[in-house]
C-alpha cells in the first residue's frame, strides 16, 4: 500500500494498538502515557484513537493552546459523542465514530431484557419445593416493540424482534422516504409510545433529545409498557419515570444507562422491583476489540490512500 505513513496516538489499549501497528501503511503507533490527559497530544501526531471515560469529562471548556495543531483525524471507540467536549467537533480535525460496532451486542441485550420481562425470569426461579406453582408466562410473539431511533442498533434489534414474531415500529430523525421491510413507520414518538409494549431508546444524546422521555410522554404510554434504555441516561427524566412506575402506568424499565453513572448510593432505582439496572455493559462482547480494530483498519486503509473515511461525525448534529 502506498500513501501516508501516519503517526498515531493510541488510547485504546494494546489489543487495538498491535493490529494498527501491523497496517500496511507502516504507521508509527504511540501508546497513551498513564496520567496524561487525553487531549494532551504530542506534536507530530496526526491520528488520535480515543474513547470516553479516560478523562475527557474533565476537559477544559475551551481547547488548550495548540490543540489539534498536527491532528488530521480522530477516531472514537464510541458511537455517541456526548462524552467529549464540544470543541472536539469544531471541524478540524475530522472525527469518525464506531457507529454499528456494538449493534449486535446491544441488540442481544435488548432481546434479553424483553424476554426476561415477558417470561418473568426472576419471579419463576425456584428456591425450594414451597415455591412450586403453575404459572402462565408472557410471550414476545404478537407484542409490539417500538424503536426510538433506527440506525445500526435499531436495525439489529428489529431483525431479532421480527424473528420472535413481534410487530416492530420505529421513529427516526430523518423521517421515512421509503418503506423498510417489516417495520411500521411512525412520525411521532408520542404515537409510538402509545402503541408499544416494549420501547427501546437508541437515540444519540443531543440538546434536542435531552429529557425526551418525560412526564408528558410517559403519560401517553400504553399501559404496561416496558422501557429499555441502551442509549444515554439523560434521555430520560428519571423522576418522571419513577413516578410513572409507582402510578402503575409503566410496568417496568431495564436501564443500562443512567444520569449520572453510577447513580448515588441510596437511589430508589437500585432496589425498585420493577427496575433492572445494569452497569452500561450492553455494548460489550468478547469480540468487541476485534470489531473495533476492523473498523479502524478499514478507515486507516482509506486514510493512507487519501480516500473518504467511513462514519464521519456530523458536526451540526453531533453524531
Which CATH architecture of the largest domain is right?
Answer: 3-Layer(aba) Sandwich
The span between the termini is 31 Å
Q: Structural class given helices, strands, pairing?
A: alpha/beta
CATH superfamily of the largest domain: NAD(P)-binding Rossmann-like Domain
The percentage helix is: 10-25%
Strand content: 15-25%
Number of domains: 2
Biggest sheet strand order reads 8-7-6-9-10-11-12
Mean pLDDT: 95
- The name of the CATH topology of the largest domain is Rossmann fold
If you compute it from the alpha carbons, what radius of gyration comes out, rounded to the nearest whole angstrom?
22 Å
Topology:
Layout: E1 7-10, H1 14-21, E2 28-31, E3 47-50, E4 73-76, E5 94-96, H2 103-119, E6 144-148, H3 152-163, E7 167-171, E8 183-185, H4 189-195, E9 198-201, H5 215-219, E10 225-229, H6 238-246, E11 250-255, E12 275-277, H7 288-305
Parallel strand pairs: 1-2, 1-3, 3-4, 4-5, 6-7, 6-9, 7-8, 9-10, 10-11, 11-12
Helix pairs in contact: 1-7, 2-3
Structural account:
InterPro entries: D-isomer_DH_NAD-bd, NAD(P)-bd_dom_sf. It comes from Azospirillum endophyticum. This protein is of the alpha/beta class and 319 residues long. It is built from seven helices and twelve strands. The strands form two sheets. Strands 8-7-6-9-10-11-12 form a seven-stranded parallel sheet, sandwiched between helices. 36% of the residues are buried.
Quick structural summary:
With 319 residues, the protein is α/β, with parallel strands linked by helices. The protein contains 7 helices and 12 strands.
List keywords for this structure.
319 residues, alpha/beta, Rossmann fold, seven-stranded parallel beta sheet, five-stranded parallel beta sheet
Amino acid at each position: 500500500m502506498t500513501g501516508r505513513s501516519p503517526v498515531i496516538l493510541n488510547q485504546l489499549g494494546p489489543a487495538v494498538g498491535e493490529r494498527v501497528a501491523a497496517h500496511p501503511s507502516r504507521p508509527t503507533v504511540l501508546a497513551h502515557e498513564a496520567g496524561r490527559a487525553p487531549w494532551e497530544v504530542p506534536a507530530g501526531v496526526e491520528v488520535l484513537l480515543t474513547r470516553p471515560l479516560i478523562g475527557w469529562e474533565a476537559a477544559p471548556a475551551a481547547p488548550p493552546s495548540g490543540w489539534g495543531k498536527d491532528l488530521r483525524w480522530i477516531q472514537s471507540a464510541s458511537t455517541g459523542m456526548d462524552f467529549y467536549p464540544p470543541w472536539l467537533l469544531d471541524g478540524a480535525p475530522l472525527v469518525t465514530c464506531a457507529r454499528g460496532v456494538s449493534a449486535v451486542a446491544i441488540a442481544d441485550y435488548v432481546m434479553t431484557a424483553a424476554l426476561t420481562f415477558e417470561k418473568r425470569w426472576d419471579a419463576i426461579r425456584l428456591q425450594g419445593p414451597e415455591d412450586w406453582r403453575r404459572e402462565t408466562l408472557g410471550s414476545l410473539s404478537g407484542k409490539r416493540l417500538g424503536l426510538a431511533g433506527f440506525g445500526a442498533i435499531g436495525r439489529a434489534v428489529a431483525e431479532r424482534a421480527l424473528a420472535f414474531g413481534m410487530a416492530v415500529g420505529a421513529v427516526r430523525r430523518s423521517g421515512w422516504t421509503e418503506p423498510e421491510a417489516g417495520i411500521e413507520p411512525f412520525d411521532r414518538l408520542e404515537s409510538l409510545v402509545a402503541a408499544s409494549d416494549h420501547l427501546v431508546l437508541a437515540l444519540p444524546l443531543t440538546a434536542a433529545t435531552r429529557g425526551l422521555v418525560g412526564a408528558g410522554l410517559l403519560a401517553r404510554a400504553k399501559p404496561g409498557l416496558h422501557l429499555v434504555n441502551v442509549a444515554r441516561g439523560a434521555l430520560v427524566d428519571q423522576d418522571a419515570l419513577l413516578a410513572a412506575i409507582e402510578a402503575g402506568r409503566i410496568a417496568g424499565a431495564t436501564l443500562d444507562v443512567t444520569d449520572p453513572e453510577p447513580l448515588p448510593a441510596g437511589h430508589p432505582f437500585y432496589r425498585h422491583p420493577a427496575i433492572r439496572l445494569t452497569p452500561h455493559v450492553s455494548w460489550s462482547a468478547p469480540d468487541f476489540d476485534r470489531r473495533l480494530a476492523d473498523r479502524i483498519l478499514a478507515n486507516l486503509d482509506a486514510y493512507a490512500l487519501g480516500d473518504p473515511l467511513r462514519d464521519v461525525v456530523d458536526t451540526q448534529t453531533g453524531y
